[in-house]
Design a protein that fits this description.
Blueprint: H1 3-19, H2 22-30, H3 35-45, H4 48-54, H5 64-75, H6 79-86, H7 100-108, H8 111-118, H9 127-138, H10 142-149, H11 158-169, H12 173-180, H13 189-201, H14 204-211, H15 220-231, H16 235-242, H17 251-263, H18 266-276, H19 283-290, H20 304-315, H21 319-326, H22 342-349, H23 352-360, H24 368-379, H25 383-391, H26 399-412, H27 419-429, H28 436-444, H29 449-454, H30 462-472, E1 488-495, E2 500-506, H31 512-523
Antiparallel strand pairs: 1-2
């Protein structure tokens, strides 16, 4: 039988008992296989006649399946059935020093059932580390919370003030208000977790309630409640906290601003800079004046510690914070030069999003310091950042910049060839400033695939196209320095005005066409001169 059929059987039995239909009841008793499930269903559905009758049937054990019948009747609020079950000596509501039924009554708000359960000698009001009052608090059942506080053994501060914390989590203001009036409850428990959670929820009334508790410190953990409210975009909570005299938004050398920039707390940065630039017409400023709090504009300094906030935001990749700080007139980028420039720092850190923001800002001159950022991105093997710099109209790329960038790559090859380096070289050699010497440099690193692909891609300087074509396919190969780990073709004597050297000619593992190409050129004597 499925559950629907079982429920129907329980309903029919209850109806038959009400009608005194002995035939129907007799038919039911014959089918012993369904007795247990029908009993459980009757308790769940509130069929007191059926439950009362089945308790007299020998095949029924009322506490079966961990007191399922009792638990379900409690959850559904069937006090008559709860009373029937508790009067049966086979039903023991407490197991392992816990009364699940009482916990369920507290959680579901069935005060009358809870009172009935507490009349049982085995049910301890403070059992399970005061689980009854904790569950009532979690579900906002204030009448049950008040009732439980009348029991002398109940401690609302047990389990590290879980009752209050659960009430705050559930946004149950009245329950929280009841609990904090009890001296055993510590509103600042767990390092001021309650006000942190209320700030997270944006629960301004709960925050206000907790701020009125002398033990609560809204500036705890580096102003964590404020930072949480900012991160979750709760402006009313932010203003409430900022107007509390215990919250110092610019204390400890603007630590709040510095921490927020490092950890990426955009909301904190935006709020602090906004109120530091407040005007007489802003309600932000009016709010501060109305509370008598000291005016704070000018005290929040985005350039603190030699511009630490924007440097941290750049290094840790918080592009939106970088954007906000760049828009503040107090941030002066003239101090950032050479390797200390923000653009170079962003490139070193590999943050493409920050690079994009910096390139958009008129405060940043990306071509300063000889386009150092471009060279750094090439040497670091960052093709995406390099491409962003190269395509920017604000970056003035010269032939020397391309050469210097390729030289940077050349210096990195000794540490190993990577796909990123190959992509960097492709970007550099595709530029209109590239020429034959740089193509040869590229081939010298062992990247024959680069000029072979560029011969079909290069647009701009026609001489570059011609040179690449000659190097790859033509009659005028001046040198071919390929990777030493490729298949050896032949050893040649290479003559040069400055020197002569033996060179192992080898090719990459891209296919037989390249091997055939080198062998053909060798037979024609086209590899004999540098």
């Amino acid at each position: 039988m499925n559950q629907e059929e079982i429920n129907n059987a329980a309903t029919e039995l209850d109806s038959a008992l009400q009608r005194h239909d002995k035939i129907k009841v007799s038919e039911f008793l014959k089918n012993t296989e369904i007795h247990k499930e029908v009993f459980k269903a009757a308790a769940f559905l509130g069929h007191s006649n059926a439950v009362c009758f089945l308790l007299t049937v020998s095949s029924i054990t009322p506490s079966t399946d961990d007191n399922y019948a009792l638990s379900e009747s409690v959850k559904e609020g069937h006090i008559e059935i709860v009373d029937l079950l508790l009067r049966d000596p086979r039903v023991v509501p407490v197991r392992n020093r816990k009364c699940v039924a009482a916990e369920l009554a507290a959680a579901y708000g069935h005060k009358d059932i809870l009172i009935r359960l507490l009349h049982e000698d085995s049910v301890e009001p403070s059992g399970g580390r005061n689980s009854i009052i904790r569950l009532a608090s979690a579900n906002g059942n204030e009448d049950i919370v008040e009732m439980m506080l009348e029991y002398p053994t109940v401690n609302p501060g047990d389990a590290n003030n879980s009752a209050l914390i659960l009430a705050v989590k559930g946004r149950h203001l009245n329950v929280a208000n009841i609990l904090i009036r009890d001296d055993r409850v510590v509103p600042s428990a767990r390092d001021n977790y309650p006000i942190c959670k209320a700030s997270f929820n944006g629960d301004i009334e709960m925050v206000e309630l907790l701020l009125n508790c002398h033990s609560v410190n809204p500036a705890a953990r580096n102003n964590l409640p404020f930072r949480i409210a900012a991160k979750n975009n709760h402006p009313k909570v932010l203003h409430l906290l900022s107007n509390d005299n215990r919250v110092n938004l610019f204390g400890n050398n603007n630590s709040l601003l510095r921490i927020a920039a490092k950890t990426g707390e955009t909301g904190v940065i935006a709020f602090l800079l906004k109120i530091s630039q407040a005007t007489n017409t802003s309600w932000t400023l009016k709010s501060i004046i109305d509370t008598g709090k000291k005016l704070i504009w000018g005290s929040i300094d985005p350039t603190v510690n030699n511009n630490e906030p924007i440097i941290s935001a750049v290094i840790y990749g918080h592009s939106e914070i970088v954007r906000i700080l760049l828009n503040d007139d107090r941030v002066d980028l003239s101090l950032f030069v050479g390797e200390n420039s923000l653009l170079v720092k962003a490139v070193y850190a590999g943050h493409l999003s920050v690079v994009k923001v910096l390139l958009e800002s008129q405060k940043v001159n990306p071509s300063n310091d000889g386009n150092l950022a471009l060279k750094v991105s090439a040497g670091a093997g960052q093709p995406e950042i390099l491409n962003e710099l190269m395509k920017s109209e604000r970056v003035n790329v010269s032939a020397k910049d391309i050469k210097d960038a390729i030289d940077e790559v050349d210096m990195k090859i000794i540490y190993g060839w990577t796909k990123e380096i190959e992509n960097v070289l492709k970007i550099l050699l595709a530029h209109k400033m590239a020429d034959f010497n740089w193509v040869v440099t590229c081939i010298g690193t062992g990247a024959l695939t680069i000029p072979m692909s560029l011969v079909h891609e290069v647009k701009g300087n026609s001489s570059v196209y011609t040179t690449i074509s000659q190097v790859v396919y033509g009659e005028k190969i001046k040198t071919l320095l390929l990777k030493e780990d490729g298949p050896l073709v032949q050893k040649y004597q290479i003559n040069s005005q400055q020197r002569s050297c033996d060179l192992e000619l080898s090719v990459i593992h891209e296919g037989e066409d390249e091997v055939e190409f080198v062998q053909t050129r060798a037979r024609k004597g086209l590899l004999l001169k540098c």
